[in-house]
Amino acid sequence: MEVVERGQESWTSPEGKEYFVKYEADENGFRIVESNVVPATDGGMLADGAQGSFVSLEDLFDEFDK
Fold this sequence. Notes:
By secondary structure, this protein is mainly β. The chain has one helix spanning 57-65, and strands at residues 5-12, 18-26, 29-35. It has one domain (5-65). A hairpin with a 5-residue loop joins strand 1 (5-12) and strand 2 (18-26). It is extended. It comes from Homarus americanus.
């Protein structure tokens, strides 16, 4: 699987806390590889790229429309 895009978003909350999300994307969707926003799921899965890909709802609906 070839990584097509890598990126990062960051912002500051109204309380002054800095947040960031680093991601990579390929033909299967995008994965959060590092973040201080969503560091782990309720089940303990870390945001380290091993959690699988996410697909947008728009992409899913587009597939149903075909």
